[in-house]
């Protein structure tokens, strides 16, 4: 069947009774081809389902007007906000998006990088998988000077820009708030510490304890995958402890909420017995009772900033090497889950 | 810089001092080329960052081992479960995924279809934007016999398969449950009715009312974008009504929860004053108090089934035309938000 064969410029040339060179030039918006002929060529190309030859086109100008996005998971409010922000900036500038998820696996991340490379994206926005320890799988992008920007889960690299919040400061603020509310036995629920976000949040937690001369205890740091189920599991373990903690700072809201629900079921009063603080300001923080104290930072803005920078790089407006790191604002939002001393 | 130029088979041929034909054959795993030479070619191609020429390759065997996914939004628990299910099935069979979101706009949907077409995906999985009224933007896929499968938000087409649940039956079950709990003034919160899912849910709602001889009232059907904010807005409107409804069936959980939170703030008791039922069984239904009665159906399974069917079509194991529609199971989950008569 004719339908199974790829449509070429020769098919278009034959049907319009013009040369293949004219078709090729027309498709490339060459100035020697008249508007009328260009329209004829484009209309027929569209009708026949001609697919622009990325290979040939990329030899000419290296652009496909497509940005690639690789994220650990698509199932969080934060990540869907980031993608909405990226989309807003990309639309403004006429770029399409191709998205892939690594499912928190560096092996899948490398495969996605390859797929994006083969799809000839003009640039890449990446938030790293939890077990990614180095960046060699991005070498083809770096070598070809195709810009790569890392956001949220980042790793320093001379050929890329990092966009993130000050995780250490945010975690310090949350922990200090719990201490100021009277907590002295504060546990920290987090993820494997390979990634900057968790490393820095742990640092901020320790720093606040240190400032108030509260001894850091290894057994008060619990490493999980930060899912709601993991939060419920941790609750079980905690409830078996001889002395209960009086505060919990979780590295995300989902895990905090799983833990809170399981504790409430067992009659623990929040915040009277145990105060809670999370991270991300997911909408669910205002559904849970009591509402959850958390760190707010705008995924939408992070996505917008990341995409705008990437597009500037793609267009050579700026160079990756001149900017290294962009830090976005975050803020502590105090709600009932941590207010042991009542509202001020 | 050499780095800015696309690497070609001629570069590989020159460096290895062999012919371009040999390189081309080697890359295509041609039997006339020795294993040793193939290894040399692949190693160098990898090192130089050679990108396989999709165009030439597709002329040969039309396969890129990539599936395209286009969904309205990536910000729901349901959609991230679907994508996890698709990913599971795709991984098993060695396929990568490229994802795009239409942001509920048929115009963006058409642009994403085009991007997927240019990326030469082997097949397409689509859940339609809320304002998509016809399928002409998929014509290039249909014409070329590249399989397209629609899931959840579907539209019948002779060249594609639809995978969905029986939305009419599910909505009938939810509404009948509210009636059995004593509700007589039941409102229905839904989205614009272009799409099958909302059309069929409205049908099921009407059917249950009819069965119990409860008069259908146009003003009891509220069309919104089904966001949490929209739910809160609807609550305000409802609270101004002369006679309050005694039951609300929302076409998704997010909107139901927005409405519940706003009503609770105004002192409305749930379920005593107004009973609630939602749709989707999002995790947040078990965070809200009282827990929300809802319709459960597995996004993960829907994604798996859709991807497996698509891959079968890509491999010509089955033909799209022989299967038309696949209906997956759904169930009513009764929780405290609707139990006016107490637990049975």
Automatic annotation (TrEMBL), chains A, B:
<keyword id="KW-0804">Transcription</keyword>
<dbReference type="InterPro" id="IPR046335">
    <property type="entry name" value="LacI/GalR-like_sensor"/>
</dbReference>
<dbReference type="Pfam" id="PF00356">
    <property type="entry name" value="LacI"/>
</dbReference>
<protein>
    <submittedName>
        <fullName>LacI family transcriptional regulator</fullName>
    </submittedName>
</protein>
<dbReference type="Pfam" id="PF13377">
    <property type="entry name" value="Peripla_BP_3"/>
</dbReference>
<keyword id="KW-0805">Transcription regulation</keyword>
<dbReference type="GO" id="GO:0000976">
    <property type="term" value="F:transcription cis-regulatory region binding"/>
</dbReference>
<keyword id="KW-0238">DNA-binding</keyword>
<dbReference type="GO" id="GO:0003700">
    <property type="term" value="F:DNA-binding transcription factor activity"/>
</dbReference>
<dbReference type="InterPro" id="IPR010982">
    <property type="entry name" value="Lambda_DNA-bd_dom_sf"/>
</dbReference>
<feature type="domain" description="HTH lacI-type">
    <location>
        <begin position="7"/>
        <end position="61"/>
    </location>
</feature>
<dbReference type="InterPro" id="IPR028082">
    <property type="entry name" value="Peripla_BP_I"/>
</dbReference>
<dbReference type="InterPro" id="IPR000843">
    <property type="entry name" value="HTH_LacI"/>
</dbReference>
